[in-house]
Structure formats: C-alpha cells, structure tokens
Amino acid sequence: MIDYIVVGFGLAGLSFVDKLESNNKSYVVYENYSEQSSRVAGGLYNPVILKRFTPAWLASEQLELAISVYKRIENKLGESLVFELPVLRRFNDVEEQNLWFEACDKPILDRFLSSELIRNENDALDVSFHYGKVKHTGRVDVKKMLSCYLQNIEKHGNLIKESFLFDELLIESDFLVYKGIKARNIIFSEGFGVRNNPFFNYLPLYGNKGEYIIIKSKELKLKEAVKSSIFIIPLGNDLYKVGATYNNQDKTADITKSAREQLKNKLSRFLKVDYEVVDQVAGIRPTTRDRRPLIGTHKEYRNLHIINGLGSRGILIGPFVSEKLYNYIENEAILDKEIDIKRFEHLR
Ligand SMILES: Cc1cc2nc3c(=O)[nH]c(=O)nc-3n(C[C@H](O)[C@H](O)[C@H](O)COP(=O)(O)OP(=O)(O)OC[C@H]3O[C@@H](n4cnc5c(N)ncnc54)[C@H](O)[C@@H]3O)c2cc1C
C-alpha cells in the first residue's frame, strides 16, 4: 500500500508532492495535461495587490516559506528556477503617487513598498509620473519547474500520464483502490478540472480565464517587471510576457483575438517602440467567490482530500496551503476556517 495518490500536477499538486517527498511518503501522480493555469502563469511572486496598494492575503506569512520551498526544489532538480525580479508600479497620475505614499506608511506594507519615487530611464516607455518599487518580488519559471519535476517523478516510476477516472475508484474506510493501486489517501489537485470531480464539484470554484501575449522587442531592453494596467515581464532574449486578461465568462482555454487586441491596445498606451507578437497562451485560474483556497477532506470519505482555489496567486499560496493540508491529514492539526471546505458544506 502506498501513502498517496495525487490527481493533477500544477502548482497545487507540485507543492503537495514536494511536502510528501520531504516526509518520505510514497505516492503516484496522475496528470492528463487538460488544464494549463500553472503552465501559462506569469510566474511572479509579489506580496502586494498593485491595483489598490493593499497587502495580498497572508502574503507576509507565505513569502518566506514559498521561496525556501522553490529554492529547495531548484537544488533537488539541479535547475535554475527562481529569480529575483524587481516589480515597478507605473503611476498614472499624482493622485496614485499620493495613494502609494499613504500605503507606504502602513505598518503592514512598509516592508514591501519603497517610499522612493523611481524615475524612468528607459526611452522605450512613457512614464510621466514615475514608478513605485515593490520589495521582495521575483519570478519562478513555473513551466520549467513543473516539467523538470514531472521528469524526476517519471524517472522514479511514480507518474501515470492518464486522466483519473472517478468511476474506477473503490473507497474503503481506511484505504482506497484505483486500477490495482492501493493507497491510504487521495489528493485532488485538478485546478479548474475539479468541475468533473463528482466528490468535490459542489464547491464554488468559478474560474477566471487569463491570457498573455509573448512579444519580442530588441529596443525595449527592460530588466524589471513593469505593472501599469497590465504587466510587462522580461523573460530574457528580448522576449516579454504581456498581460494578463481577466475573463469570467469564457471557460475555454483557447487563445482569443479579442484578448490579443485588448493587450496590444493597453500596451500602446505606454510602450513607444516596435515589437512583434510571437506567441499567446491562455489558462483558467481556479478562483473562488470568497477569494480563499479550498482545502480539506470529504465529509463522508475521510481519505479523500482537496487542494484547490489558489486563484491568481498560486506561487505564494501553494506551499502555504500544502503544509496546512499535510499537517491536517498526518498530524491532526486544525485547519483554519477561512480555507477549510467545511465552509461550503451547505452546498453539498
Ligand atoms: C494567465 C495566468 C497568469 C497567472 N499569473 C500568475 C502569477 O504571475 N503568479 C501567481 O502566483 N499565479 C499566477 N496565476 C495563477 C496560478 O497560475 C494558479 O493559482 C495556479 O496555476 C493554480 O494551480 P493548480 O495546481 O490549482 O491548477 P492547474 O495549474 O490548473 O493544475 C491542475 C492540474 O491537474 C490536471 N488534471 C485536471 N484534471 C485531471 C484528471 N482528471 N486527471 C489527471 N490530471 C488532471 C491538469 O492537467 C493540471 O495540470 C496565473 C494564472 C493564469 C491563468
């Protein structure tokens, strides 16, 4: 009997599997490549919501854990995956500058916001009202991390590249059997794919589609991530990720012309040099109505668990909630009410 079956290997599945490996637990992963959210993510970690200059949910608590987890994974896999990357918020007017200074004075934010105005020295960008700089920011190459981690799992014979079929799961009181694999527990980490999961699809996971365009520009020469109405994220080799869009109507993961035009239009308001669109990607963020993750155990089946609802901040939230879920299952720790799926029991 193995310890865990893990269904889905995006940021949620990866951080839980990493927790299992750190604790010498045995596991297999099922992955069918049906959802793209983690693979297309911008990869930024940034503890501040830059629309309103407010702290992201528990970002201070999540930041150090997340960086230490990704650095450990970097060492384990022998690949460069985590990069410090300054994030500059472009101000639209003096009013926004004032709001920024007000935010800098708040004790909860002074660790993250620099109170110095940063002058733009890049002729490729129109930045009339300067930048504010966020501290402790960076980028994780999520696509590469997932792919290298999966290769490692496959090398050890623990990856099954198939869709998990719910009808074939046999549930007993203290173990499960799936296609001949006997396990103590199963973790569902399917992102927006949870809508097909009969055990957990009652949970209010709505999904919000996001698209990026990837542009190439020799003249831009940008070293920092710049946030205006959209982000420009440098990827190296004159390539930049530009986006993302937010769309809660379209639940397909297809790229669209309308998103491309929207992003180009927003870019034209402050980018002054030529560029070429070389690619476009799309994915559905697993978002919830109350903007909190969905973590916990099925009410009737004590060996079925879920880690989902990472929303638009999976990089920081993933390791944090993985630790919470692991300690809940293995060490009888109490789950915080605000993340526990019990808050949606009335919807079952
Ligand atoms: C455009 C965009 C930009 C983003 N940018 C950022 C960012 O800069 N920073 C940040 O922190 N977050 C960002 N996010 C959010 C972040 O990507 C999500 O929080 C994260 O991807 C959620 O991870 P997940 O593992 O829950 O879901 P997913 O990444 O969707 O992973 C679920 C996995 O389960 C698999 N699966 C599903 N069903 C089955 C099944 N039946 N059998 C087998 N496998 C299955 C899927 O193929 C998939 O690999 C962004 C998201 C998008 C869409």
Strand content: 25-35%
Q: Return the average pLDDT rounded to an integer.
A: 96
Distance between the termini: 31 Å
How many H/I helical runs? 7
Largest sheet: 8 strands, mixed
Q: How many DSSP E strands? A: 20
Which CATH first-tier class of the largest domain would you pick?
A: Alpha Beta
How many structurally independent domains?
Answer: 2
Looking at CATH, which topology of the largest domain would you report? FAD/NAD(P)-binding domain
User: CATH homologous superfamily of the largest domain, by name?
Assistant: FAD/NAD(P)-binding domain
Any idea what the shape is? globular
Give me the CATH architecture of the largest domain, please. Answer: 3-Layer(bba) Sandwich
Oligomer: single chain
Ions, cofactors and other bound molecules: flavin-adenine dinucleotide
Proportion of residues in helical segments: 25-40%
What structural class do the secondary elements suggest?
A: alpha+beta
Q: pLDDT below 50 for ≥5 consecutive residues: which ranges?
A: none
Helix-strand sequence: EHEHEEEHEEHEEHEEEEEEEEHEEEH
